[in-house]
């Protein structure tokens, strides 16, 4: 997935979490207002890729189908991490909804995973330093497992 598309998906998730968007046209207009000129057909593809559903007539993330993680910090990670991508051999870049990065980073820090050296959180992005390439793969696997449990 291209970086622009990933950023657009993050913006869509942020928009639908902050206000009710009921049609593809409303979503396209909201994206355009944020500097993302899109067509209705690209919005339609984005909705499909993000597996958005309508709840009370407005787009939302899909309801969870698997059991949620029992630990509150794992639940915070499962609900907060939108994407996790490797950067080099010992860094992961995690994206969250706006304002959630610090809460998710604190949850990761409290879990004290042995492969994680440290976190730096901004508003919606976390840099996660890990020990090496093997640790990077293990942490990515754990993040994806939590993400699947939280969906």
Poorly predicted runs are none
Rg computed from alpha carbons, rounded to a whole number of angstroms:
16 Å
Please tally the β strands and state the result.
6
- In which order are the strands of the major sheet placed? 3-4-6-5
Tell me briefly what this model is.
By secondary structure, this protein is an alpha+beta fold.
Draw up the topology in text.
Blueprint: H1 3-18, H2 24-33, H3 40-50, E1 53-55, E2 58-60, H4 72-80, E3 81-86, E4 91-96, H5 101-111, E5 116-121, E6 125-130, H6 133-149
Antiparallel strand pairs: 1-2, 3-4, 4-6, 5-6
Tell me what you see in this structure:
Helix content is 49%, strand content 20%. With 151 residues, the chain is an alpha+beta fold. The protein has a four-stranded antiparallel beta sheet. Strands 1-2 form a two-stranded antiparallel ribbon. A hairpin with a 2-residue loop joins β1 and β2 (58-60). It starts with a helix and ends with a helix. The mean pLDDT is 88. The chain has two domains: 3-60, Arc Repressor Mutant, subunit A (Orthogonal Bundle); 72-149, 2-Layer Sandwich (Gyrase A, domain 2), CATH 3.30.1360.40. It has helices at residues 3-18, 24-33, 40-50, 72-80, 101-111, 133-149; strands spanning 53-55, 58-60, 81-86, 91-96, 116-121, 125-130. The protein contains six helices and six strands.
């Amino acid at each position: 997935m291209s970086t622009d598309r990933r950023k657009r998906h993050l913006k869509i998730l942020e928009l639908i979490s902050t206000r009710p968007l009921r049609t593809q046209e409303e979503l396209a207009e909201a994206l355009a207002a944020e500097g993302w000129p899109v067509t209705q057909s690209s919005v339609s593809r984005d909705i499909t890729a993000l597996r958005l559903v309508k709840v009370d007539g407005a787009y939302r993330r899909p309801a969870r189908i698997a059991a949620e993680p029992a630990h509150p910090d794992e639940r915070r990670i499962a609900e907060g991490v939108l994407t996790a991508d490797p950067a080099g051999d010992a860094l992961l870049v995690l994206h969250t909804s706006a304002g959630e990065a610090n809460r998710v980073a604190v949850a990761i820090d409290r879990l004290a995973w042995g492969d994680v050296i440290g976190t730096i959180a901004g508003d919606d992005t976390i840099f996660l330093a890990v020990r090496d390439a093997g640790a990077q793969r293990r942490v990515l696997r754990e993040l994806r497992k939590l993400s699947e449990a939280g969906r």
